[in-house]
Automatic annotation (TrEMBL), chains A, B:
It comes from Chengkuizengella axinellae. The keyword Zinc does not apply. CDD domains: ASADH_C_bac_euk_like, VcASADH2_like_N. This is Aspartate-semialdehyde dehydrogenase. It catalyses: L-aspartate 4-semialdehyde + phosphate + NADP(+) = 4-phospho-L-aspartate + NADPH + H(+). Pathway: Amino-acid biosynthesis; L-methionine biosynthesis via de novo pathway; L-homoserine from L-aspartate: step 2/3; Amino-acid biosynthesis; L-lysine biosynthesis via DAP pathway; (S)-tetrahydrodipicolinate from L-aspartate: step 2/4; Amino-acid biosynthesis; L-threonine biosynthesis; L-threonine from L-aspartate: step 2/5. Residues 7-125 form the Semialdehyde dehydrogenase NAD-binding domain. InterPro entries: Asp-semialdehyde_DH_CS (IPR000319), Asp_semialdehyde_DH (IPR012080), Asp_semialdehyde_DH_beta (IPR005986), NAD(P)-bd_dom_sf (IPR036291), Semialdehyde_DH_NAD-bd (IPR000534), Semialdhyde_DH_dimer_dom (IPR012280). Homodimer.
């Protein structure tokens, strides 16, 4: 195959997700496309910094309406406000925007895409494609194959989310607090559970049942995002679903304790078979060998890992699963790059 | 009230739970009874060590069949094997045994007691009373008042369990691994997820979806204990219940994401009212103030804390709750001392 070359821009180049995207693009010999040119963009504050890309120094520039000239693909991961402000300029300038923020996700004309699940939606794009919330993303990667095989009626999920979902500052906060607590020193909390909320609580040696701010119905935005986006990605507006989102003192990889009800009588063995054949999914499920996924073993990997699959003890069509994936990779950066790859494969880029 | 005096023995005096019991008994001016004499017992390995009790030095003795002479109340928390070996000797010697291990919990003639829930069962004892598994214990403390008011049909729980549930060695393991990981050093795992299982995995900056060893149906013993004990304590053999038990890098206090279905149409407000009036329960639920319980805020306290109560988004009789309590206090030591207090109040001691 003759791989095409693209000019790629990264908005939010110094952020946790931006850094992972840069790292993935540096290895473009492994991708479906080559990088002809890279433009690294950020806020005024980080502009001027120099980052190495494939051994060459690239200076980060401040994002403006004019940053996107000649850019084929623009990856946005600098927060909803930045996407709101600059995504249209990028599209007008001829770029395809692959947006990692929540800003456009629920817009009717914006496809919300997990390539393994709904790549066909990419054909409907009008310039912007949204990458789902990391917690929803890894869950649908594992559950969509089950839905296709056996139907899906209900999801109840409790999450164990890594701090990197809140960015570099949250990682530093966990590290600094952990070090201070081990030394018996006083600790401060400034970022978690949600940077833009009023109060902040320690995450080191703690868990916080709040990810993002609260909404009017006492669910958090993270919980609402998970629910709404799961329904949109899987095309199931009537799916029954609730979520409890919890932050845990883990750097990378979200874990999820998921209860599902399917529409047919199936066995655990049949579900395992479906997951073994599912794209992007790795089955790690063998209790006698203590085999199951964990954040530490999943971090740095692109797949979604599933284990601890077992029948509910009461409902014959109820099952429990444990789903783990790197929230910065499949949950953000890798899914973004996958979208670009898939669009190229579908001749949309 | 004229408080009576008792000779108390603690089997497992150097363990995580034993230490907490000693601490509670030292403050007997706050209890319903005084300590006349304390006998501290342990394995051969720890015998000879000296512990201060109310300022006086007490030498720990090796547990033998003859250790219980004159002992009124014997608290056991040295593991199931020790309870199996010595509990009967203690009863034969005239002691009432309050056992923190799983050994007798499901025996028909052994009451499994949470004083706020089923104190009346103490009247049926024949020498041994079992303290429930910590995860089940705190959950029933919060759910039994709801059951009494509105009926209870179903529970699905995912836990976030502190390492102290696996003893002092597990606390040290978390601390040592955390320190090593912060320094970028190699880490070793020897205790968690289950000391007597084949493989061990790091818990620092990780979560492990295994607490205790696996059973034949691919649930862990911890999950089965939670389920079986919840049904026994609440007297609900037909309750629908499943559990996923997960270890998190927290020192003390277990958290639980709990989904319930009740038998009547009720509002969140009505559930909150019931919990506000419930013994041993503290409602901490105000999303606009970011008020909810966490392990760090609950550690060292005797109550069970409940927050994040909200209606399921689909089932009108479904609700979600977040339940947190100190696993070594209400989950073990405090519930043990409460059992002794309640027996004294009921004239059973």
């Amino acid at each position: 195959m003759n791989k095409k070359e693209y000019h790629v821009a990264i908005v939010g180049a110094t952020g946790a997700v931006g850094q992972k995207i840069i790292h993935l693009l540096e290895q473009d010999q492994e991708l479906q496309f080559y990088i002809k040119k890279i433009t690294l963009l950020s806020s005024k504050r980080s502009a001027g910094k120099v980052i190495k890309f494939k051994g060459k120094e690239v200076t980060i520039q401040e994002t403006t309406e004019l940053s996107f000239e000649g850019v084929d693909i623009a990856f946005f991961s600098a927060g909803g406000e930045v996407s709101k402000r600059f995504a249209k300029s990028a599209v007008d300038g001829g770029s395809v925007v692959i947006d990692n923020t929540s800003h456009f996700r629920m817009s009717k004309d914006v496809p919300l895409v997990v390539p393994e699940v709904n790549a066909h939606k990419l054909r409907e794009h009008s310039g912007i494609i949204s990458v789902p919330n990391c917690s929803a993303l890894q869950m649908v990667t594992a559950l969509n194959p089950i839905k296709k095989a056996f139907g899906l009626e209900r999801i109840i999920v409790s999450t164990y989310q890594a701090v990197s979902g809140s960015g570099m500052n949250a990682i530093n906060e966990l590290m600094n607090q952990s070090e201070a607590m081990l030394k018996g020193e006083d600790i401060t909390a400034e970022i978690l559970p949600a940077k833009n909320d009023k109060k902040h609580f320690p995450i080191a040696f703690n868990v916080l049942p709040q990810v993002d701010v609260f909404t009017e119905n006492d669910y958090t935005f993270e919980e609402q995002k998970m629910i709404n986006e799961t329904k949109k990605i899987m095309g199931m507006p009537d799916l029954k679903m609730s979520a409890t989102c919890v932050r845990v003192p883990v750097v990378s990889s979200h874990s999820e304790s998921v209860y599902i009800e399917v529409e047919q009588d199936v066995t655990v063995g049949e579900i395992k078979k479906v997951l073994e054949a599912a794209p992007g999914v790795v089955l790690q499920d063998n209790p006698t060998q203590q085999m199951y996924p964990t954040p530490l073993t999943s971090a740095g990997k692109k797949e979604t890992f599933v284990g601890r699959i077992r029948k509910d003890l009461d409902l014959p069509r109820g099952f429990h699963l444990w789903i783990v994936s790197d929230n910065l990779l499949k949950g953000a950066a890798w899914n973004s790059v996958q979208i670009a790859e898939t669009m190229i494969k579908l001749d949309l880029l």
